């Protein structure tokens, strides 16, 4: 049995500070999802939202599409938009998998990296510096990691790793939607690329492990803050 979202409360909490109807609807729903007021699994029906917000269905559809790009909801066949199921336990599970697979890929790949791989990784970092869109950031982060692992020479290991990174994507995007780009740990990405360029495997894998530890800790902190009912935020 699905709990029916209290749309009137969401609309009231949304405030009137947004320029367009789409932005207004998107901001109200994003706040509600990130704070946990709209829990994972909650269906979001376009007609009901349009009615509650007093807008047409077009801006509602557009807002839902933008929230999907931020991994805050999924479009499920025959059900429509549903708030993404995420949990601290699932995030920790995925980090354990990444921690097991990625250093193994990186150490096998580094000796075989080509100048064009390093150039591609550097370009992806630059693009991340310039891009503020959480949907795009998740993809850029994934591609950056995969370029550095790409010469591991073990297609099954790489396929598993790519799969783990894709599953994890929603946490990264969720996290970016809550905290902004400052949390992407670009410093660690740069260190890892430098170490790879120098062929320094111990340093590169050390940086990667720290990168994953830091990310796991910030996601855990996000869930802990959510559990207490506090708004996600701050710049730690
Ligand atoms: Ni990363």
Question: What does this protein look like?
Answer:
This protein has a 3-stranded antiparallel beta sheet. The chain has 2 domains: 7-83, Winged helix-like DNA-binding domain superfamily/Winged helix DNA-binding domain (Arc Repressor Mutant, subunit A, Orthogonal Bundle), CATH 1.10.10.10; 88-224, Four Helix Bundle (Hemerythrin (Met), subunit A) (Up-down Bundle). The protein is mainly α and 236 residues long. It has 10 helices and 3 strands. The chain is elongated.
Counting DSSP E segments of at least 2 residues, the number of strands comes to 3
CATH architecture term of the largest domain? Up-down Bundle
Order of secondary-structure elements: HHEHHEEHHHHHH
Helical stretch tally = 10
Categorize the overall geometry: elongated
Biggest sheet features: 3 strands, antiparallel
């Amino acid at each position: 049995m699905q709990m029916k979202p209290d749309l009137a409360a969401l609309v009231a909490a949304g405030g009137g500070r947004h320029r367009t109807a789409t932005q207004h609807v998107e901001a109200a729903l994003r706040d509600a999802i990130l704070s946990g007021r709209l829990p994972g699994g909650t269906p979001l029906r376009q007609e009901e939202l349009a009615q509650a917000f007093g807008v047409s269905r077009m801006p509602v559809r557009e807002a839902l599409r933008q929230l999907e790009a931020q991994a805050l909801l999924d479009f499920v066949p025959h059900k429509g938009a549903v708030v993404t199921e995420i949990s601290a336990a699932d995030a920790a599970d995925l980090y354990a998998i990444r921690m097991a697979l990625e250093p193994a890929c990186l150490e096998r790949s580094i000796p075989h990296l080509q100048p064009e791989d390093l150039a591609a990784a550097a370009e992806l970092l630059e693009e991340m510096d310039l891009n503020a869109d959480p949907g795009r950031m998740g993809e850029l982060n994934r591609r950056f990691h995969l370029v550095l692992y790409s010469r591991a020479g073990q297609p099954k290991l790489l396929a598993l790793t790519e799969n783990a990174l894709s599953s994890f994507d929603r946490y990264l995007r969720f996290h970016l939607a809550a905290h902004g780009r400052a949390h992407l740990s670009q410093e660690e990405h740069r260190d890892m690329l430098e170490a790879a360029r120098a062929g320094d495997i111990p340093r590169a894998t050390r940086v990667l492990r720290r990168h994953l530890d830091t990310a796991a800790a910030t996601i855990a902190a996000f869930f802990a803050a959510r559990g207490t009912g506090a708004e996600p935020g701050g710049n730690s």
